[in-house]
């Protein structure tokens, strides 16, 4: 059976560690759950562990959060679009925004539903994803502050999400100055600066960020333990929260180099089946065919747990793994385990062909979870300054 295993003990460890990181910063944080693709068993387990604020970018996933953890604070991460404003104000407590027309529509929708909708205004700081240009800040806020049924919580930014840029203290300092400017100009308090994602955690650990940066949206580091600056594992975090197991459909001793001319292109670029590293023509070894392929995940993002194994290639529904002399005596029907990158993980969770398994059983885990070990990911809207 092909299965992605979510280890609650490792997940709980990472949640506790990052809660500690946030305590150093004196900040709130919200767990970005979009990589779970609405997997309700894991969402319930997260709520049970103490997660009180979750972020997602799909409305269907927010509906899953409502079913699995109705009491948690919910953030809508993708920029709202006009056709779904009614859904956004009923499913999300907070959304990230950069368009006046959309904010006005959110306010009208919130009014129809008898709600106040909370927003963070996103500012462009160089990642070239969403955000208004700093030069238009004053005019933008002049229009937004007095919109009915809209509450402006603060400002935010996306850094490192698309362009891969490494955040700097100077960028954060800009946000702090923009907030000071707006508060002085309009005599309105903007309690939240939400600029931080997992890529900011190394700076938190180094104590380099101003305390005014007081909200973080953290996902990848929780589930994968990733240091997004170095590409390694972040200090103190575990990288075994998510493990993929792929069943072996064939295992045979074969040549490790194709016995034919290799063409210039394959359906999936970069995994051509050409000469594997360190192998010469005529070299033989065992090859295992695993019943997972490019349809299921980003194969480039998989790393066999056994460091002597090497992914030789992949097709739409098969991964070929060179396992050397098979000293572990792996047999047909056994599985090979892989760690996942973020892109591999999210595609696996969105794949209906892959079984999702949470271990240990959440009910058993909850019974053995002491009260003092809850992670206390507190909702931003319950904070003293909001």
Question: Can you describe this structure?
Answer:
The strands form 2 sheets. Strands 1, 10, 11, 12, 13, 14, 15 and 16 form an 8-stranded mixed β-sheet that branches. An 8-stranded parallel β-barrel has the order 2-3-4-5-6-7-8-9, surrounded by 5 helices. The longest helix is centred in the first third of the chain and has 18 residues, at 8-25. By secondary structure, the chain is of the alpha/beta class. The protein contains 11 helices and 16 strands.
- Name the CATH architecture of the largest domain: Alpha-Beta Barrel
CATH class type of the largest domain: Alpha Beta
- Summarize the main sheet: 8 strands, mixed
Integer-rounded radius of gyration: 23 Å
* CATH topology (fold) name of the largest domain: TIM Barrel
SS summary, helix count: 11
Domains (count)? 2
The whole-number mean of residue pLDDT values reads 90
Stretches where pLDDT falls below 50 for ≥5 residues? none
Give the strand content. Answer: 15-25%
Name the shape in a single word. Answer: elongated
* SSE topology string: EHEHEHEHEHEHEHEHEHEEEEEEHEH
Helix content: 25-40%
Q: Indicate the structural class.
A: alpha/beta
Work out the oligomeric state of the chains in this entry: single chain
Number of distinct beta strands: 16
Distance between the termini: 48 Å
CATH homologous group name of the largest domain: Alanine racemase
SSE layout and pairing:
Blueprint: E1 3-7, H1 8-25, E2 28-32, H2 40-49, E3 53-56, H3 59-68, E4 73-76, H4 85-91, E5 94-97, H5 100-112, E6 117-122, H6 137-144, E7 150-156, H7 169-186, E8 192-196, H8 201-205, E9 215-218, H9 220-224, E10 242-255, E11 284-290, E12 302-304, E13 310-314, E14 319-324, E15 335-340, H10 342-349, E16 355-359, H11 362-367
Parallel strand pairs: 1-16, 2-3, 2-9, 3-4, 4-5, 5-6, 6-7, 7-8, 8-9
Antiparallel strand pairs: 1-10, 10-11, 10-15, 11-14, 12-15, 13-14
């Amino acid at each position: 059976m092909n299965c992605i295993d979510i280890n609650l003990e490792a997940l709980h460890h990472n949640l506790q560690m990052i809660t500690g990181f946030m305590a150093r910063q004196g900040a709130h944080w919200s767990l970005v759950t979009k990589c779970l693709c609405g997997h309700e068993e894991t969402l319930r387990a997260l709520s049970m562990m103490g997660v009180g604020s979750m972020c997602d970018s799909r409305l269907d996933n927010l509906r899953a959060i409502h079913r699995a953890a109705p009491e948690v604070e919910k953030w809508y991460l993708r920029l709202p679009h006009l056709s779904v404003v009614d859904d956004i104000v009923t499913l999300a407590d907070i959304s990230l925004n950069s368009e006046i027309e959309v904010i006005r529509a959110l306010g009208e929708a919130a009014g129809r539903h008898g709600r106040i909708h909370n927003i963070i205004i996103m500012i462009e700081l160089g990642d070239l994803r969403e955000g208004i240009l700093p030069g238009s800040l004053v005019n933008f806020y002049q229009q937004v502050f007095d919109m009915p049924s809209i509450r402006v919580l603060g400002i935010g930014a996306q850094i490192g999400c698309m362009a891969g840029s490494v955040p700097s203290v100077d960028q954060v300092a800009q946000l702090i100055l923009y907030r000071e400017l707006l508060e002085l100009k309009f005599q309105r308090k903007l309690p939240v600066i939400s600029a931080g994602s997992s890529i900011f955690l190394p700076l938190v650990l180094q104590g380099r960020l101003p305390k005014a940066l007081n909200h973080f949206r953290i996902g990848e580091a929780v589930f994968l333990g990733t240091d997004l600056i170095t590409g390694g594992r972040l200090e103190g975090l575990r990288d075994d929260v998510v493990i993929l197991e792929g069943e072996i459909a064939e295992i045979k001793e074969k040549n490790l180099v194709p016995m034919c001319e290799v063409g210039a292109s394959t359906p999936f670029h970069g995994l051509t089946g050409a000469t594997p590293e360190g192998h010469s023509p005529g070299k033989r070894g065992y090859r295992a065919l695993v019943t997972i392929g490019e349809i299921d995940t980003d194969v480039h993002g998989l790393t066999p747990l056994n460091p002597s194994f090497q992914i030789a290639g992949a097709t739409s529904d098969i991964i070929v793994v060179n396992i050397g002399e098979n000293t572990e005596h792996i047999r047909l029907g056994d599985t090979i385990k892989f760690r996942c990158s973020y892109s591999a993980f999210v595609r696996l969770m969105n794949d209906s062909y892959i079984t999702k398994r949470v271990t240990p059983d959440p009910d058993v885990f909850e019974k053995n979870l002491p009260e003092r070990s809850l992670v206390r990911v507190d909702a931003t809207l319950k904070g003293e300054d909001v």
